[in-house]
Amino acid sequence: MASASPQTDLLLPFTPNSHPEVKIPKLIYGTAWKKEQTADLVYEAIKAGFRAFDTAAQPRHYQEGLVGEGIRRAIEEGIVTRKDLHIQTKFITPQGQSLDNMPYRLASPLPEQIEKSLASSLSHFTFSSPSDSSPEGNAEKPYIDTFILHSPLATVDLTRQALTQLATHIPSRIRSLGISNIDLPTLHPLVVSSNLPALPCVVQNRFYSSTGHDVSLRSFCRSHGILYQSFWTLTGNPSLLQSKPVGDLAVKVTERGVVKDEKEGRILALYALVSMGLRGISVLDGTTNMEHMVSDLEGLKAMRGLVAPGGEWETEWKNWVEEFCDLISESP
C-alpha cells in the first residue's frame, strides 16, 4: 500500500520559504461563476471563517470587483483586516476572455496586457483601514498575495518573460507568483533551469483522474516547496466521493455529529483526505451554501483533533489515507 503522508501536515497554512509573509490556508474560497451574488457570498464566506480567496481578472467567469466589495464590507465592519486575508487573482490571455469585456486592449503587446490586468486587479483590492485619527480610514497600498498566470503562454520562453515581468512587482504590489493549468514537462524547466528572479510558489490545477490526479507533478511541487491548489475536487471526482475510505470517514464524522448527514460527510471526508491526508495541497471550495461554508471549515477543525497524533482516530486515519493514496496511485 502507498505510505500515508506525515500527520504533521493537518491544517497548518502553507508558507513559502521565499515568502514568509504569505500564508495560504488549506481551504480557499473560489469565486468563479458567482455572478451578481459574488459580493454577498464573499462577505458570508468571511463571516463563516474563510480567509483566502481566489479570483481572476476575467469578467466572463469572475466578478473581481464584487470580490473586492465583499471583502471591503467585512473590513469596514471590523470582521477582518486586510492582513488577515490571502487574496489571489490571475492574468488571463485574450484566448480566455470575452473580447468585448476584458481588462486590457486586445491589440496591446503582452507586457502591456499584463500590466493593465494587474492594475485593474489592484484597483479592486484597495481598502481603507479604520484609524482613531481618521474616522473615514486611510487607504492602504493595495497588493495581491499571489498573482497567478492562468495558464502557460505559447512557449516556455514567453512564460518565463511574463513571470520575470511580474517579479518586478515583488514585494510591493505582488507578494508571490503562481501558475495554473500546467503539466510537469512545462513546469520543470521553469523551476529548474530558467533562472527566474522569483519562482512560482503555487500551482493550481484540476485534481481529477484524467491527469492521474497530478501525482508526479505534485511530487515535484513538494520537492521544490510549491503549494498545489486543487480545483474540481468534488465535481471532478464522483468515484472518489463514492469510494470506501471516503465513505468510511463520512460515516464516522456523521455519527460524531460533525456534519448533519452522510452527504455532507462525504464532502467533508474528501476535502479532509485531499487537504490533510495528502501533502502540500490546498483545496478551492466554491460552495454557495452558507451552512456548508461553516461545516466545511468547522468540520476540518473538528477532525484535526481526532486524527492528529494521539487523537481518537489516529490509527483509522492512517488507514483511510493509505487506502485513498492507493486509489489515486499516490507514490510514497
TrEMBL record:
GO terms for molecular function: oxidoreductase activity. Keywords: Oxidoreductase. Residues 32-227 form the NADP-dependent oxidoreductase domain. The keyword Hydrolase does not apply. It comes from the Eukaryota. The keyword Cytoplasm does not apply. Transmembrane segments: none annotated. This is NADP-dependent oxidoreductase domain-containing protein. It comes from Venustampulla echinocandica.
